[in-house]
Amino acid sequence: MDWIPILNNTASSIISPATIAYALAALGLAVHFGYAGLLNFGIAGFMALGAYGYAISILTFGLPWWAGALIGMGAAAVFALVLGIPTLRLRGDYLAIVTIAAAEVLRLLFLTTAFDDVTGSADGLSGYHGSFRDANPLPQGTYGFGPWEYNEVGWWVRILGIIALVLAAVMVWRLMASPWGRVLKGIREDEDAVRALGKNVFSYKLQALVVGGVIAAAGGVVYALPSAVNPGVYVTSLTFFIYTALLLGGAATVFGPLVGSLIFWVLQTFIGNVMPALVTAGVLPFMSNIQSQTVRFILVGIALMLIVIFRPQGIFGNKKELTFVK
Amino acid sequence: MTRTRQAIASRLPRAAVLLVALMAALLAMLAFTASPASADEVDTDKYPNRVSGNVQLNGEPLEGVELNVSGNGVDTDVVTDENGQWAVGVPEKNADYTVTLNEETLPEGIAVVDEEDDSPNEKETTVGPGGRVSVNFFIGEGERNVTGFADQLVQRLITGLRFGLMLALAAVGLSLVFGTTGLSNFAHAEMVTFGAVAALLMSQAGVPIVLAAALAVALGAVFGFVLDAGLWRPLRRRRVGIVQLMIVSIGLSLAVRYVFQYIIGGGTSQLPGADARPIPLFGTVALTPIDMISFGISIVVILAVAGWLLFTRVGKATRAISDNPSLAAASGIDVDGVVRIVWVLAGALAALAGVLYAYYRPGIKWDMGSAFLLLLFAAVTLGGLGTAFGALIGALVIGLIVEVSTLWIPADLKFAAPLVVLIIILLFRPQGILGRRERIG
Lengths: 326, 441
Prior knowledge:
Low-confidence stretches of chain A: none
Oligomer: heterodimer
Strand order of the largest sheet of chain B: 1-7-2-11
Helix content of chain B: 40-55%
Shape of chain A: globular
Number of strands of chain A: 2
Strand content of chain B: 5-15%
Mean pLDDT of chain A: 91
Order of helices and strands of chain A: HHHHHHHEEHHHHHHH
Largest sheet of chain A: 2 strands, antiparallel
Strand content of chain A: under 5%
Distance between the termini of chain A: 47 Å
Structural class of chain B: alpha+beta
Radius of gyration of chain B: 24 Å
Number of helices of chain B: 13
Largest interface: A-B, 57 and 60 residues
Low-confidence stretches of chain B: 1-38
Helix content of chain A: 55-70%
Distance between the termini of chain B: 27 Å
């Protein structure tokens, strides 16, 4: 079998838009789950708002791409407020159920044929790239070397994605080192103690939900930048994949979500390429080509279980910082 | 919960071995793969412009429906793929085409409905300057456009009741598991799908469906037992936190869900008898024999479970543990033994619900659990987390909302309605209908 394209694809996934999008979403989730202790299972909904907000602003309202991105993130902030005000007073597992339900409602609203003109229902949205590509300062051509060779559009998406990621990571890092971040971590450890100090716990949680939600929506925008918005992406499985990436790296860290997403996608791409190649080479005679593509998702589930059982702090985390383990 | 047993039990190695054995057993059943039909896109590479669409019934794609696109020199036949999608390439922009849906190829009792149109299965469409147009038909029960509101309501109420009873079968198990172990089991819907997939594989292997369904329920009980013995009990022994357990159940759900895809492929498969003709009962209400059997089984099983909870020693012990596990253990109840029984029961009930759900949808798909899971959570939360009878009431309410809401909202949003209701109810009564205030913390 031919290892060169397999390794090429795997190396290329290191800076793929999907990896950057996952890293942003996982970073947002780190603010929710890792730092504030909020069990948000609706991260796919925040990403969908980013992606659809971006595409709909451009297609339906004819706005420039940067305004679309801002609207996508703004929609996520509004969603966080609407979701948080009623539910943040509830116990953790109620919040989990409400957020997963809210994200699913959003997805069904994007999917229904009732709003086909705006959302494209099952077909999703595409063809919104005009103003984004016009804003590209890179001249036409192919740049890079080895596996990282992309055309000007590919680089423009990646450069913007990485800038957004670095900004978000620095922001989260500074926020968590600030008094605000310390209060947030205090809430995670012992809500009542923080309340006894006179802090408005509810307000802090709500702020955390908005901040993390906006970062996750930025991930959704990056996901939508290169090609199209497909409603089949923003399912509950996406939330679970983001959780896997986050927990792999470490929930209450800044680097964890980034490295976790990187490892997640590198392994996904590698297994997704190597399994069909093995089948074609006749090494796995009991497996069909389609089945070999499913194996990697089975492995994600098993990996998630093993991480949470045996190393809940992830690669970078500190076990003392994990209240969810207690 | 004796100290000695806890000390003797070797913990995670056994868990890991059993888990691997479980996965291996599921992987070993990998003989069947669905092959998708291929005539869903015709001439799309020949012409730049296209007419496309999506044929769905209540949000479920319909496969194998024949359509015809004609006008401007084309007369093309096309068949929907497993996602209900079709596309036809056409030569001219800014031109009119006629799309005809062959109603003969729709399932029995289903038609294209449109009250304002005499021939609703024929549509005129214009391919605009974009070169693309999508054409969708309103598809539903054929009698829908002639029945009045009251008749529709009765029909929906009965379907909703049937769905609610089926949902209750699974919800009671989920609620009992939550009550006795504190676990919000995200993999519960996979236990439901497990029943459907087991019945499918056996019936494909030639087992009569009644026997296959019974065996599927038995296998579901075994599945529940294996999950408890191989995974959840060792984790409880390790004193793994509640949230951690919840995330483990998510991982399990993902793994098992994709194992199903591995085994049965990405398409939708039908159990035998799913296309039976409805028999008119009274008014406009018509049910297939399987609907009626499903009704009967659900009611009998739910009454049996309720009786078990209320009147038997183990049932009472289960409720005692749900109330206060430490107190129950202190008064001599074998908590681990009861939890094991609860898992076996939950597995069997979930598998039964899965077989019935396969007929209700109709069809078996590897990810059919993901929508079901949220309805289950909605039912259990609505009734009050951890209360078995609350789950029953919650499930009935959710079932009715799902079906009755389609009188006012598009059918592809019917699973969104109960989730919205859930969120609203949590605002005003977060403990649910039968729950107690202290549980919400």
